[in-house]
Amino acid sequence: MSVSNVTGLITAAPFVLDSRRPSGAVGLVAQYLDNVGIASVQLRRECSFSTFSQRMRLVCGVEPPLRLRCAIGGSIRLVAVGPESWLAIGTGNLFTVLREGIAESASLTDQSSGYLILRLTGPRVRETFAKLIPIDFHPRAFAIGDAAATVAAHIGVTVWRCPDDAGGYPTFELACLRSFSADLVEALRRSAAEFSFLLAVYPLTN
Amino acid sequence: MNGQPNRLAQGGLINRDRPLSFEFDGSRYFGYAGDTLASALLASGRALVGRSFKYHRPRGIVTAGSEEPNALVELRQGARTEPNTRATVVELFEGLRATSQNRFPSLRWDLGALASVVSRFLPAGFYYKTFMWPAAFWEKVYEPFIRRAAGLGRASFDPDPDQYEKTHAFCDVLIVGGGPAGIAAALSAARAGARVILCDEDFRLGGRLCSDRRQIDDLTGVEWVVESENELRSFEDVRILQRTTVFGVYDGATYGAVERVSDHVSEPAPHQPRQRLWKIVAERVILASGAIERPIVFGGNDKPGVMLASAVRTYLNRYAVMPGRQAVVFTTTDDGWKTVSDLHACGVRVAAVVDARNVVNPEYANVVDRLAIPIYAGARVVDAWGARRVQSVTIRAADGRSIEVGTDLVAVSGGWVPNIALTTHLGTRPRWSDRIDAFVPGDLQGIHRAIGAAGAEFSLQGALQQGQLIGSEVAAELGFDATGRRARAFQTDPENTQTASLSVSTAFRGKAFIDFQNDVTQEDIELAAREGFRSPELVKRYTTLGMATDQGKLSNLNGHAVLAAILQRSSAEVGTTVFRPPYTPVALGAFAGAQRAEHYRPTRYTPGHAWAKEQGAVFAEAGAWLRAQWFPRSGESTWLDSVNREVRMTRGGVGVCDVSTLGKIEIQGADAAAFLDRIYINTFSTLAPGRLRYGVMLREDGFVMDDGTTAHLARGRYVMSTTTANAAKVFQHLELARQVLWPELDVQLVSVTDQWAQYSIAGPRSRELLQKILGRAINLSNEAFAYQACAEVEWEGITLRIFRVSFSGELAYEIAVPARFGDAAVRILMAAGEEFDITPYGVESLSVMRIEKGHIAGNELNGTTTATDLGLGRMMSRTKGFIGRVLAGRPALMSADRPTLVGLKPIEQGARLHAGAHLLPSEVRPSLSQDLGYVTSVAYSATLGSWIGLGLLSGGMMHLGKRIHLFDPLRDNSIPVEVVSPVHFDPTGTRLKS
What we know:
The complex is a heterodimer.
Chain A: E1 28-34, E2 36-43, H1 49-60, E3 70-73, E4 76-82, E5 85-91, H2 94-102, E6 106-110, E7 115-121, H3 125-132, E8 147-152, E9 155-162, E10 171-177, H4 181-192, E11 197-203
Parallel strand pairs in A: 1-11
Antiparallel strand pairs in A: 1-7, 2-5, 2-6, 3-4, 4-5, 7-10, 8-9, 9-10
Chain B: E1 15-24, E2 27-33, H1 37-43, E3 50-51, E4 58-59, E5 72-75, E6 82-86, E7 97-100, H2 114-117, H3 137-149, E8 164-176, H4 180-191, E9 196-199, E10 215-216, E11 219-220, H5 221-234, E12 238-241, E13 244-250, E14 254-259, E15 275-287, E16 291-293, E17 306-308, H6 309-317, E18 326-331, H7 335-345, E19 349-355, H8 362-370, E20 375-377, E21 380-385, E22 392-396, E23 402-406, E24 409-413, E25 416-418, E26 431-433, E27 438-440, E28 449-450, H9 460-477, E29 513-515, E30 520-521, H10 522-530, H11 536-543, H12 556-567, H13 571-574, H14 588-592, H15 609-614, E31 618-622, E32 625-630, H16 639-652, E33 655-658, E34 664-668, H17 672-679, E35 691-698, E36 704-714, E37 717-721, H18 727-741, E38 748-751, E39 756-762, H19 766-774, E40 790-795, E41 798-803, E42 812-818, H20 822-833, E43 839-840, H21 843-852, H22 885-888, H23 891-894, E44 899-906, E45 918-921, E46 933-941, E47 946-954, E48 963-968, E49 973-980
Parallel strand pairs in B: 1-7, 8-9, 8-15, 9-12, 15-28, 17-24, 18-19, 18-24, 19-20, 33-43
Antiparallel strand pairs in B: 1-2, 3-4, 5-6, 5-7, 10-11, 13-14, 14-15, 16-25, 21-22, 22-23, 26-27, 29-30, 31-32, 33-39, 34-37, 34-38, 35-36, 36-37, 39-42, 40-41, 41-42, 44-47, 44-49, 45-46, 45-48, 46-47, 48-49
Helix pairs in contact in B: 4-5, 4-9, 6-7, 10-11, 10-12, 16-21, 19-20
């Protein structure tokens, strides 16, 4: 008996929502990260940050950021979510890789099914955020590499800013607990409807 | 001109290429794009637009802005009906339908006008002295009558078909008001590089520049506005919000504004909201909200045709409308004279100019002499006369003569009053200025500067220069470089701003109104003072002055001036009332935004939700979650049938239940075990890997907070389960303990509730089912995997977790799979379980089974019970410290007669128990003094063929076997019950450990 790799993502509306306006311009593109591995990483008391940081650089190629920042390298994202606490995001085998590399210095918990990670980009991404999230996303206030724990439509989210995409549009990634996925996607769809909105898959590769 | 006798042939900022038609009170009228409902009605010659609230006096349009007190209409129809909309701010659109309010059967012939006839019996506060006798009349006669008479306008009771939106905005400088001062400030700040938001409630920028014919350098006022707006729109970091009222100043540098996105069209465009609420966070706020003209108090000053002089200019210049044909201008200011010249320039006959000042500016006198317009200096209008429109006025000249002048338009100019409502929202009081005879802002809080007319600078040149200066100053304060540009001088056409205060007079014969909307007269103020209500706040509440939807914009100053005169004190001493948000009414829909109906708050779905929905499950809300309550099958007619069947099949075979919603917290670290010992009342450091244990945790005050099981998965790694309702609370509790109470412990906590889909598989055939699916991955025999064992299992490349734990009292397991396989997992279980006659079961059945087994749940963990109350006292360790230990030992919590957990069974077979019913000794009259406790949980047990319950009974199990009474005061019934063990079914637990 085998298990099919069903994502189990609940959506309130058809799976891919496309409300492109006749002109073809899409204001907001939302992609959910597929083949994603997620882990909670929390520094253990007896380990120093510098040792842990060295190990992380060896294993993931990025240095764990501090305070309201994220570090992005290849497919890896390390987001600071609390004191000595990070969310690590990468491809599907991330948890195993981390467990082998840093298990002595940090407590690890597999969260690969625990979060929905959405990648959001497009010319109207900031205006869409403004309708849902009460923080300032102006480039002066939220630079590439900044991160925040906040709410979007009353749903707790962690959001961080990635390098701009190929079109030069500001790009963000956003994590929310899986059980809120349907409502969050619906809130994004509703807020971006006036700009036109596209939901698709973003397959992560190493 | 298409039924618009008062429309001027030329001029105005209306678009004559776009004629519109609309309906008012069932009659068809015409106007143009750029009109308001008020300007179009005036153009059609309509003066009468409403009836006043109390006396039902005929009323007309007084102003041209949002301060309008009289022209309140009911707009639109059906579900979009809007009462009390000010016609002066309604943008005309094709097909608009409006009706007047507060009149029956029609505006012209209103029965309510009888109230005017008996008005001397209806002064302010008359209701405090009436409606008292006879006492019996209150409920049947007076209250229904008052309820019908009170309130203005009617609301639609249909659901609102429109969408509303809320959005956030951040800026360096928020400028409230897009008139000359505001625009000049916005330009300065924007040029310095600041992020600017400019808000104006109107649909055009420009403020008074749209209403007066002014020159700024070599441009007209309107041209300057257009040029400035274009420049502002060229900046990336400038946002101009039109049709947007900043309605409130709040703590935390937060400002509320409402944007009327689609009020000016018959239906919002696709994906557009009707209105949008803005929550603006701004570093600096500049108030450029202008000033409101002050009416003058005289007899009959509320008659249609009596208007503010500045509003008359707005109608002439902006809307190309003559509000009348034969005007009298009554002024105490130089500003009023502008109306004289504008009226004349538009061909309206000025029958008289009444200037209350003794000396008239010779400039004006000369002009007016040439035009043969009679001037009365040092004079006052004392009465206006007319039925449904003003027809004449009585003027008292300086020498005491009375002169009657025929007129259909009385333009009144009592001076400008800075519009400073927003400066008082955070509680600071305004201060009196003798120079302008009005109040100006006191200490500024929430607002950083007040400029232009809002700052008592009434000249255009002054407003422009001040705006320019303050915009740069404020930007510089925030670190922006404002030195780049040279300041502009701004040459404007000449103007005079002299004004004089007018003493309070009583020399009138008709009713002299102070507050038009609430029908408060000068006599009412005198009455209030006579009755001892001598402060502005008390006068306000006694007379209702300033309590209408216009918040006293036209009435406060006059009312408080009358009070000051009566008390023979200065206005500075008497003071004025302050304001609260919103500045003008805001639709509740805008505050709700998208959070309506089922979107009121977010919903959480379990990984098995889609499957459960396919099965036709009926769902219940458990906090934010949806949980399947039961799974109806064909042939079952009530929920009880379904629940009985689910319990029977589970206890007889195997059932599966989605328990993903229960909180799951992973606990790791070198000190994890020690941490658990301090959290739970029982010991966990002795729990071996591969085992789990039931635990209870207390609040600091010794009462039970939550219960659950914690499993020791592998060395140093635990997973704790909590109840669904307390998941977040427990996590916070643990985090507080970890971060604050014992930071020296090496403990790491993570919530994994969403990471794992969890299913309970219960019943005598549960082992067979799981063994069939998992095959060689794990040996589930009773020897290899005993009761309360746990394990992580690798199966088909996935890590699963299995716990042998049972809430139902059957042989049972819980299986946790990563949530992305949660949907597949339940389908596999159901498919494999077919041969075992598997049934899904929901929370109702879960509840029945746990009550049968006497397991406590939320009803018993109600925050007022201790571990001892619940029969778990022996779990409390005597050898270790844990949260709540000390206060749990308080005498009152250890008292022997505290209600403790018992089971209950009705004596009469088939009698129904209800939760919440009280327990009393047999055969006593029910009273609180006899109360022995209450029923916490009930269920119908098909297994036992009876209703059963759990409850808290004083003396508890000492009364085992006794007969007591269950009294339900809500349903007014009383039945005898027997006290039994809470474990109604399988008391020795043989099924559990098989």
